[in-house]
Write a structure and sequence with these properties.
The chain has 472 residues and is α/β, with parallel strands linked by helices. It is built from 18 helices and seven strands. The chain is 51% helix and 7% strand. Helix 10 packs antiparallel against helix 11, helix 14 packs antiparallel against helix 15 and helix 17 runs antiparallel to helix 18.
Length: 472
């Protein structure tokens, strides 16, 4: 279009000159913004360190750039160390399981190398506010660690932070690297010049942690079969008995196997104040319920509930409906029906859309010889989940016990019309049908207590697993 060329023979009309001026201004502004972001990411960390709350962080496995295949385990090991040490300083971190869940939802393998854009996508899916990622290089003598911090909002990428040392001094080099990350996260985290920044400056993992214990732990958590996991984790626990992470993972393995005797033994090695302490305490209470030890179960759940009233932020836990529900189960089994009802009603108030809590309210009313008061909670549970056959059975039997045969027949007819199948009321002891919350939702331990977007806020399981009390 010759008319757009600036020359002495043909000047563009005023309209086109105006459009060109606007386009040039937009390009110029974009260039300035890009330059500013680049300078911010490569310069001082003041842009991010000014924030007092870094939010929730996700740590990725460090990439092995040394091409030494025997050190592949170290990538996951450095991620575990970073997570544990940042948690030790009071920061909120996502677990390895939460990272794997986000990857599975997106459809990405855990072993892949990710671009910055993909890292942001994974972090967004996991509901993280920032990401720590890095790499390591080993030349046979010197191990060099490198980490970077990526914040999502506002977007900010730190310069690389590096530390070098021998493989034998891995824990010390990593401790110094962690302090660099902490300082980048918030200026208040920085230590004074000359302050101790080696492994003794962190309480967890223990300063005595041996590299071979870390190696066995990592091989245990990434193993594909349970027997390999058990062998590696037991060896890690033997090499470093003061470290609670292998004990917790062993407890989890036995808990999933329904071997409560073994699970309780390992859970007992996890201090309540550690990151895994609340879940270990919760599962300990479940094991006591499954073993029909109502007194010990009550003590376990009451201890967790007591922490929700603590004034110490390092001890305080949020009020978790699953804890309230299971405390109610323990008290109901101990014959404390009024106390149990109060716990179930509190759980239902915390999570009104969980039908199990309403079923338990109704059961506790029946245990207290108040069948008329049980009708409403059973109806509420059935309204939330129309396919809940046990809730329908309890409602029908309760209505019939009150002489409300017509109402009971209406419930049966409604079930038949909806295709839910026939319902046969049983004479089972209602207390035996009380529902235990089997899953501890760690997302509620984060600041704000919110579950990741797109995921259920809480999950319960009313199916009581069989218990194998024999050791394996």
């Amino acid at each position: 279009m010759r008319g757009l060329c600036y020359n002495g023979l043909a000047m563009p009309p005023r309209f086109f000159r105006t459009v060109l001026l606007i386009v040039c201004a937009m390009i110029f502004a974009a260039a300035i913004a890009q330059t500013s972001l680049l300078a911010q990411s490569e310069g001082s960390p003041s842009a991010v360190s000014s924030a007092s709350n870094p939010g929730t962080l996700l740590v990725f496995p460090f990439e092995n750039d040394s091409r030494v295949a025997s050190l592949d385990w170290l990538g996951e090991g450095l991620a575990e160390l970073t997570t544990e040490r940042l948690q030790d300083r009071g920061l909120s971190l996502l677990s390895r399981q939460e990272r794997l869940a986000a990857l599975e939802k997106i459809g990405l393998p855990d072993s892949a190398r990710f671009s910055h854009a993909t890292i942001v996508k994974i972090a967004t899916e996991a509901d993280a506010d920032g990401v720590v990622f890095g790499r390591f290089i080993y030349d046979g003598k010197t191990l060099t660690l490198e980490a970077r911090l990526l914040r999502l909002s506002p977007p900010w990428l730190s310069p690389p932070y590096t530390q070098s040392g021998t493989l034998e001094n891995l824990l010390r080099s990593h401790a110094r690297l962690t302090w660099q990350i902490l300082c980048a996260l918030a200026q208040k985290n920085c230590r004074q010049t000359g302050a101790d920044t080696d492994e003794t400056s962190f309480a967890a993992p223990p300063p005595s942690l041996r590299t071979d214990a870390l190696q066995n732990f990592v091989r245990g958590v990434i193993a594909l079969d349970d027997d390999s996991r058990l062998r590696a984790l037991r060896e890690a626990a033997r090499l470093e008995p003061a470290w609670d992470r292998p004990a917790f993972e062993l407890g989890q393995l036995y808990f999933m196997r329904h071997d409560c005797d073994a699970a309780l033994q390992w859970y007992s090695h996890v201090p309540p104040g550690r990151a895994d302490g609340p879940e270990a305490g919760f599962n300990t209470g479940i094991c006591h319920l499954l073993r029909n030890d109502a007194a010990r179960a009550e003590a376990a759940f009451a201890g967790l509930l007591e922490r929700s009233r603590s004034a110490d932020p390092k001890v305080r836990l949020p009020e978790i409906p699953e804890v309230r529900n299971n405390l109610g189960v323990a008290r109901l089994r101990a014959g404390k029906s009024a106390d149990a009802t109060a716990e179930f009603e509190r759980a239902a108030a915390l999570d009104e859309e969980e039908p199990d809590y309403w079923v338990n309210v109704g059961i506790s009313k029946l245990a207290a010889k108040q069948p008329a008061a049980a009708v409403s909670p059973f109806e509420r549970a059935l309204k939330i989940d129309p396919k809940d056959k046990d809730a329908r059975t309890l409602l029908i039997s309760t209505l019939e016990s009150l002489g409300r045969s017509a109402d009971a027949a209406a419930v049966v007819s409604e079930a038949a019309q909806s295709g839910s199948g026939p319902t046969q009321p049983t004479s089972r002891d209602p207390v035996a049908q009380v529902r235990i919350s089997m899953k501890f939702d760690r997302t509620l331990l984060r600041p704000g207590g919110n579950a990741p977007a797109g995921q259920p806020s809480r999950g319960t399981n009313s199916q009581k697993p069989e218990v194998d009390t024999g050791r394996k």
